[in-house]
Design the sequence.
């Protein structure tokens, strides 16, 4: 069966700093698609973040590039297998230089926290109780 993938393209100010940040979160960099102005971050088998230096990012759009530290351009949400894994990933992000974003969300069967990466992109990390999801 075909596994559809998502490639999230994000503008970054410093490709090397962003590569270091995301590897500190436990993700890998695919060297086949990484250059001086672009980093391919493998989040899972079906999720890839392409971190593009702003000049490289501009090659793909005629629109003004948002400053994610001042405006919201996108909210990215990653699932986690447990509440503990939510805390583990967000805590690693904060230790690697991210800023916390908002308060933790705890609805019993759903738990999440968020952080802003080095360029201000907001990443939410959420866990949902499988029993609650199944209804």
Sequence:
């Amino acid at each position: 069966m075909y596994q559809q993938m998502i490639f999230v393209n994000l503008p970054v100010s410093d490709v090397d700093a962003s590569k270091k940040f995301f590897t500190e979160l436990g993700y890998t960099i695919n060297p086949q698609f990484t250059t001086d102005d672009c980093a391919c971050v493998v989040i899972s088998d079906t999720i890839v973040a392409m971190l593009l230096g702003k000049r490289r990012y501009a090659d793909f759009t005629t629109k003004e590039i948002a400053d994610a530290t001042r405006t919201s351009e996108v909210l990215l949400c990653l699932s986690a297998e447990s509440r503990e894994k939510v805390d583990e990933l967000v805590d690693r992000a904060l230790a690697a230089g991210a800023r916390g974003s908002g308060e933790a969300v705890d609805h019993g069967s759903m738990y999440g926290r968020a952080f802003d990466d080095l360029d201000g992109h907001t990443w939410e990390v959420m866990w949902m109780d499988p029993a609650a999801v199944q209804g």
Observations:
- The domain at 68-135 is CATH 3.10.180.10 (2,3-Dihydroxybiphenyl 1,2-Dioxygenase; domain 1).
- The chain has two domains: 1-65, 68-135.
- Helices lie at 15-24, 54-58, 83-95, 130-133.
